[in-house]
Design goal:
The complex is a heterodimer of chains A (166) and B (166).
Chain A (H helix, E strand, L loop, with lengths): L14 E4 L16 E4 H5 L3 E6 L6 H13 L1 H6 L4 E6 L3 H10 L7 E5 L4 H4 L4 E2 L2 E2 L2 E6 L2 E7 L10 H7 L1
Chain B lengths: L14 E5 L14 E5 H5 L3 E6 L6 H13 L1 H6 L4 E6 L3 H10 L7 E5 L4 H6 L2 E2 L2 E2 L2 E6 L2 E7 L10 H7 L1
Parallel strand pairs in B: 3-4, 4-5
Antiparallel strand pairs in B: 1-2, 3-8, 6-7, 8-9
The chains are: A alpha/beta (166), B alpha/beta (166).
């Protein structure tokens, strides 16, 4: 088990929990049903930015980390990014609600559950029972960028840092 | 480990975690800090209803279970209930956001965390890692009602059943 680095293949068999956003369940008080998102398969032929946050609805995540990505979606798309995938240890229902609370109504940004932190565990990029704060760029199944925050501030995993690396 | 029943004393040392609602953190994307809610101390001299749900932002809980308590809060108060506490296994940040999503911005209904489902585990009333669906009425330290749902619907743990028992 070691840190992911540029040039590594994205691991096999990675899935996340997912409640897709649909127009008829747009309100935060309505809930869709969770399904499985096959990340390994989906990332095999796309350019993906994966952002891990320690928790839905928590301070830094909602106020400082996430907004950078939401505001700059078009810049990411200009650099060829197909999807931004936000993960946390929270279940898929909570992730779906968090996405709605942030005003995200498209599937340019997906809010998924790293169920039982199974993916983040592979690198030991955890914070207690939660996933740590990190960002990855995955291009057609290969890791092009993988940086974990050394401290509490949002630096190497911020939207600006990732845009600079794209 | 034994389920509670009418006539039992409410256990000592029961605490939950919650984020106190404040005007500054009224927005769903603003987060406060979690603090301890000493349920045993709080319930010693009040009439309280604990409503346990399997998860924040999940379908039955959101559509059927919690709204009942919100809509009939005045009826509960008319029967002498001082406090309604909704608990789930979700962390306090998520519970706080869920309360706000349901339009609750004060302590009329407290949305709290049964941390690691510890309290629910003492009753044997869990659903995997989640707390099961149940309702308990505590009157000045004595349990006067404690019922867990046998199936998937909201019956004995719903507001109507609790109102009938008050």
């Amino acid at each position: 088990m070691s840190d992911p680095k540029k040039g590594d293949s994205f691991p096999e068999g990675v899935t996340f929990g997912y409640v897709p956003f649909t127009a008829d369940k747009a309100s935060i008080n309505t809930c869709g049903l969770p399904t499985t998102y096959d990340a390994t398969k989906e990332f095999a032929d796309k350019k993906i930015v994966l952002v891990s946050t320690p928790g839905a609805f928590t301070g830094t995540c909602s106020e400082k980390h996430l907004p950078g990505y939401i505001e700059n979606v078009s810049k990411f798309k200009e650099k060829g990014v197909d999807k931004i995938v936000v993960i946390a240890y929270n279940d898929a229902f909570v992730m779906s609600a968090w996405g709605k609370a942030q005003g995200v109504q498209t599937d340019d940004i997906l809010f998924l559950s790293d169920t039982e932190t199974n993916f983040s565990k592979k690198f030991n990029w955890l914070k207690g029972e939660r996933t740590a704060r990190y960002a990855m760029i995955i291009e057609n199944g290969k890791i092009a960028y993988a940086e974990k925050e050394p401290a509490r501030e949002v630096t190497v995993s911020s939207a600006d840092a990732v845009l600079a690396a794209l | 480990m034994a389920a509670l029943k009418a006539g039992d004393s409410f256990p000592a040392d029961v605490s939950f975690l919650y984020v106190k609602p404040t005007p500054e953190t009224a927005e769903i994307t603003a987060c406060g800090m979690p603090t301890k809610y000493d349920a045993s101390a709080e319930f010693a001299n009040k009439k309280a209803v604990i409503v346990s749900v399997p998860g924040a932002f999940t379908p039955t809980c959101q559509n059927t279970h919690v709204p009942g308590y919100i809509n009939k809060l005045s009826e509960l108060k008319a029967k002498g209930v001082d406090q309604v506490v909704v608990i789930a296994f979700n962390d306090p940040f998520v519970q706080a956001a869920w309360g706000k999503a349901n339009g609750i911005k004060d302590e009329s209904i407290i949305f709290a965390t049964d941390n690691e489902a510890a309290f629910s585990k003492t009753l044997g009333w869990t659903l995997g890692p989640r707390t099961a669906r149940y309702a308990i009425v505590v009157d000045n330290g004595k349990v006067t009602y404690a019922e867990k749902e046998a199936g998937g619907d909201v019956g004995v743990s719903g507001v109507d059943a609790v109102l009938a028992a008050l």
